[in-house]
């Protein structure tokens, strides 16, 4: 059994990064190289011989039926669980010699997980040094919660709580942001607003983003690439060559249907 490997890896193992013509994302994220990844829970095999290369600053969506291993993969990347076999390696896009640690990775869950006894601002400042408090306040303003900073989480709507959770995650200036169905419980309009907000902040900060979602339209809306998992394997890989900001179009609808058909076929 091997533990998660956090050392940076030899750049000869990856291909040179080529920015899509439509992308203006700065490369402030981290490359992720996953090799021969296995995950077992007792006798149950959740992930099997999985290989995946994610480039710095890339936005990847992972789709698939329930139980296919999507959230497990995210938890392994986040170091919330150990791999059974294989390696997950990281390399900073800022400096070849600079490694990636757990402090560079943040997770947003479906539940915002705010501390109810702390104000919205204090939630956004969790884990920060005092000199970083101003950044948390700035991010609350960016997510539209400047006037809610001194309120309690219970006083916020569901969408506002997720905005606060997003500000808290980004206040740590992560190189990698993992999104585990963070918009699943929101109403349709709030969900669209949050999608736009996440895309805007991703373009501004350039972190590597991995989104787990059951919403194929959301995957097409946000991702550079869509990975379809089936029984612990990568079944399909879809490149999303659509200009940003994305609007419903024939090409958008065709790709959405193609991905949906592939999910239904698994």
TrEMBL record:
<dbReference type="GO" id="GO:0005524">
    <property type="term" value="F:ATP binding"/>
</dbReference>
<feature type="domain" description="ABC transporter">
    <location>
        <begin position="32"/>
        <end position="256"/>
    </location>
</feature>
<keyword id="KW-0813">Transport</keyword>
<dbReference type="InterPro" id="IPR017871">
    <property type="entry name" value="ABC_transporter-like_CS"/>
</dbReference>
<keyword id="KW-1278">Translocase</keyword>
<dbReference type="InterPro" id="IPR027417">
    <property type="entry name" value="P-loop_NTPase"/>
</dbReference>
<keyword id="KW-0547">Nucleotide-binding</keyword>
<comment type="similarity">
    <text>Belongs to the ABC transporter superfamily.</text>
</comment>
<dbReference type="InterPro" id="IPR003439">
    <property type="entry name" value="ABC_transporter-like_ATP-bd"/>
</dbReference>
<dbReference type="InterPro" id="IPR003593">
    <property type="entry name" value="AAA+_ATPase"/>
</dbReference>
<dbReference type="Pfam" id="PF00005">
    <property type="entry name" value="ABC_tran"/>
</dbReference>
<keyword id="KW-0067">ATP-binding</keyword>
<keyword id="KW-1003">Cell membrane</keyword>
<dbReference type="GO" id="GO:0016887">
    <property type="term" value="F:ATP hydrolysis activity"/>
</dbReference>
<dbReference type="InterPro" id="IPR050166">
    <property type="entry name" value="ABC_transporter_ATP-bind"/>
</dbReference>
<keyword id="KW-0472">Membrane</keyword>
<protein>
    <submittedName>
        <fullName>Aliphatic sulfonates import ATP-binding protein SsuB</fullName>
    </submittedName>
</protein>
């Amino acid at each position: 059994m091997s533990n998660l490997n956090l050392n940076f890896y030899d750049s000869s193992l990856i291909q040179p990064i080529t920015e899509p013509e439509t992308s203006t994302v700065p490369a402030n994220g981290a490359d992720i190289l996953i090799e021969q990844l296995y995950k077992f829970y007792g006798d149950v095999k959740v992930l099997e011989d999985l290989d995946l290369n994610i480039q710095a600053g890339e936005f990847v969506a992972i789709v698939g039926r329930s139980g296919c291993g999507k959230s497990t993969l995210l938890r392994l990347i986040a170091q919330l669980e150990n791999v059974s076999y294989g390696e997950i390696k990281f390399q900073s896009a800022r400096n070849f010699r600079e490694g990636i640690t757990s402090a560079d990775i943040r997770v947003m869950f479906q539940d915002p997980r705010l501390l109810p006894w702390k104000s919205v601002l204090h939630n956004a400042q969790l884990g920060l040094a005092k000199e970083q408090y101003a950044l948390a306040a700035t991010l609350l303003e960016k997510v539209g919660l400047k006037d809610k900073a001194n309120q309690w989480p219970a006083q916020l709507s569901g969408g506002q709580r997720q905005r606060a959770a997003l500000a808290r995650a980004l206040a740590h200036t992560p190189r990698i942001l993992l999104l585990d169905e963070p918009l699943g419980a929101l109403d349709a309009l709030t969900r669209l607003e949050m999608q736009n907000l996440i895309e805007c902040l991703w373009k501004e900060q350039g972190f590597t983003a991995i989104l787990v979602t059951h919403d194929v339209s959301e995957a097409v809306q946000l991702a550079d690439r869509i990975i379809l998992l089936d029984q612990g394997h990568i079944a399909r890989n879809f490149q999303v060559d659509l200009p940003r900001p994305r609007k419903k179009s024939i090409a958008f609808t065709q790709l959405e249907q193609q991905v949906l058909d592939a999910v239904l076929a698994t």
